[in-house]
UniProtKB/TrEMBL annotation:
Entry protein name: Uncharacterized protein
Phylogenetic classification of the source organism: Eukaryota, Metazoa, Ecdysozoa, Arthropoda, Hexapoda
Organism for this UniProt entry: Molorchus minor
Length: 87
């Protein structure tokens, strides 16, 4: 077993032991600082993902023409990269 497998297994075990729905309820955040940090990081990650999805949905034609998404994303990245180089 590799150290990466050990890390994966021990992480899953820790999550199973410490991240039950009861533990993650807002009222329980103050009981365990580790759980509070995990919950805050999770909430932040969720906000980042949702904001990214909102951006993609409003700046591309993914809802009406999803097949265009790869080209639209390439264009966005290239225009952003070129814009940053000009600064």
């Amino acid at each position: 077993m590799s150290s990466l497998d050990d890390l994966y297994s021990s992480t899953l075990l820790w999550i199973e032991q410490h991240c039950t729905l009861v533990d993650l309820r807002p009222g329980n955040y103050n009981k365990d600082p580790t759980i509070r940090q995990f919950a805050l990081a999770y909430e932040f990650s969720l906000l980042v993902v949702l904001n990214s999805l909102r951006y993609v949905c409003t700046k591309t034609d993914i809802l009406s023409e999803p097949e265009k998404l790869p080209d639209e994303v390439r264009q966005m990245v290239l225009s952003n990269k070129n814009g940053n180089q000009k600064s």
